[in-house]
Design goal:
mainly beta; 15 strands; six-stranded antiparallel β-sheet; five-stranded antiparallel β-sheet
Amino acid sequence: MTGALTVTQRALFAAALAIFVLVSGLYAPEARAGEAAALGPVTKLPLPRFVSIRSDEANARRGPGLDYRIDWTFVQRGLPVEVTAEHGQWRRVQDADGLGGWVHRSLLSGARTGLVRGQGTIPLRAEPEAEGRLRALVEPGALAQVASCDGAWCRVRAGNVQGWLPQDTIWGVTADERFD
């Protein structure tokens, strides 16, 4: 019986193949063509998404639990991070430099913040217009609270000054994201 599979062998092969496909992630019902971004299995919120660090220190662990080694500690309250995965009470996050790990959800906030990026100072405008009145010049790396974005401009507070920054100069929002 060389080269021929029995009915039992074919059934076992089909079952093993189905398990492999499911485990390997080749079958992802939430990522079918025409559907929106994936949703987190715990919160049902979009993945990836931006949040911020809630506390003065937040340990980023190698895995989702207290038994895992601490690889990194975020030490700036309000720092924007991107949530890329969820597991129970844990969220896998990364910062603008790609550093991160698993952080307990209690150390994260839904408050939107952003890091100013670019070469040289960025004009903070009084209106969402390239020629709007200048309110301040913001240094790259400055942390700003993000109140809203319209797809091109974001209304922010940097220090004690409010105004508008071009959306593409902020790490912590996506290029065409809109929210109030």
